[in-house]
Amino acid sequence: MKTSLVVPAYNEEKGLPLVVQEYQDVVDEIIIVDDGSSDGTFRAAEQLAGSKVKLFRHEKNSGKVAALRTGVRQATGDIIIFTDADYTYPARYVPELIREIEDGADLALGARLQDRDNIPAINRIGNNVFSFLATYISCMRIQDSQTGLRAFKREMFDKLDVKAKGLEFETKMTVRAAKLGYNIVEVPIDYRPRVGRSKLRPLQDGARMLSSLLAVAYSETSLLAKMILIPSIFFIVLGVAAGLTSVYEKVVFGVLSHAYYPLITVFLILVAIQLISLSLIVDYLTKKLDRIEERLRR
Predict the structure, then answer these.
(1) pTM (2 d.p.)
(2) pLDDT by residue (tens digit) across 196-220?
(3) Cβ neighbour number for residue 39 with a 10 Å cutoff
(4) Rounded to an integer, what distance in angstroms lies between the CA atom of residue 229 and that of residue 225?
(5) How far apart are the first and last CA of the chain?
(6) Beta-carbon neighbour count of residue 194 at 10 Å?
(7) For position 221, what pLDDT does the model report?
(8) C-alpha to C-alpha distance for 3 and 274, rounded to whole angstroms
(9) In angstroms, what CA-CA distances link 283 with 139, 144, 147, 178, 295?
């Protein structure tokens, strides 16, 4: 299968040449998409362009996701690989990702599980939190939902593409693939210190990732699972109301009018969590059966 590497680049004049040089021997073509850079990224990319390296440019900065979509449209390979232009993802793991796709995986991820000291502490915490949430929502173990190194067959992109503007794209794409029952394989990789200045905004991007996780969890959940979710929301509201009432009475009056308010709060929230978990399991099984039926029809 022919392989195409898509590299979105925004103000990455230092890292981009290193990435292209390293990846040239492991893929058949490289698609660089300069996303309206204001530094020397486009000039550096022009010097790299050739028969194997193709360059495209957005006149205005449109965001990483738009650059990825442009790259996929222009790619001619059967297998698409995404990587970042900051030289953080080693190219030596690409052949293994490609083998996983050729062996039947729908999405192969380069999971940053080795040399994690190169990841800033706040980023590691966020990575662990969102990977845990992704695992819980999808009922599938996902160790690195945010990784930028990933591979998939070209025809899978329309199924895996999601509405996003920035760094939440990878997380949302991973969870959607899992929610739809596709086969996800993680390959442990090293992670190097980035070349150039980081564009990650921990609080803003973290809030966006959380909202995107909740959005994809709801939108990709089957009707049966949503029906189970309805009473869980009701129980959560009642539990929170009982908890707030007990706190108010304790602060204002110094005593609870009903001693069982705290117990009721815990009980209702635990029931809600159990129902949410049940709905996610039902949804996972439903989507897996859909994928099995889809493969049998082929």
Answers:
(1) 0.79
(2) 777 667 677 777 777 877 777 777 7
(3) 13
(4) 6
(5) 20
(6) 20
(7) 75
(8) 44
(9) 9, 22, 25, 11, 19
